[in-house]
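To: structure desk
From: M.T.
Subject: fold request, one chain
Message: Could you run this one when you get a chance? Sequence is below, nothing fancy, just the single chain.
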Amino acid sequence: MGLARGLERRLEQLVDGLAAHLFRGRIHPVELGTRIVREADLGVFETHAGPGAPNAFVVTLGGEVESAEAVTEAERELEAVMSEAAAERGWRLDGPVTVNIQFGDGAASSASVQTSVEPGPVAPWAYLEPATGNPFELGVNRSVIGRSSTADVHLTNDDVSRQHALLWREAGAIWLADLDSANGTFVNDERLTDVTDLLNGDQITFGGTALTIRVL
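Reply: Done. Structure tokens follow.
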């Protein structure tokens, strides 16, 4: 899987910044970012909410590097690229993306990537706001909304099904699907009959529970 042009530009800036000497004679940052996303794609697995992917990556480069700051800069940029790529592809990540760059024997141009799933708290990308009370965070992509205690967004009202709806990001849009709920899902007072895309500020009603989506 390749990278979108915007993600490529982000990585190309590394060869002009603090991390420039980190990649001198080594794999190009764009190629490394593409490899990380490809390894994540190879590790995609099914979750209760759809496709999930690894979120932790250990990158081993050949040779040594003197600047810890350069390594940290590269790690943060690679984490941002993987996070954006996962949202673009509609993958669920059950923890924050972490990239750890280490160094080992071998040619300077060599690189390997190991992946794993490391659950943990994920920063919200949007909120579901009730008319009164505290908002509900949308952190993980592909969030199940329902009355079940295991739902990603736990609504306690009796008119909400245990697994009521699924909300996720993919291909630059936000999507919502009803999960055969008893009382239906509505967007701006129109009952959902198929998967639909959402806009910032849309009102979503799960049974009789109305919430407004606010995208960060």
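Reply (cont.): The longest strand covers residues 56-62. Let me know if you need anything else for the meeting.
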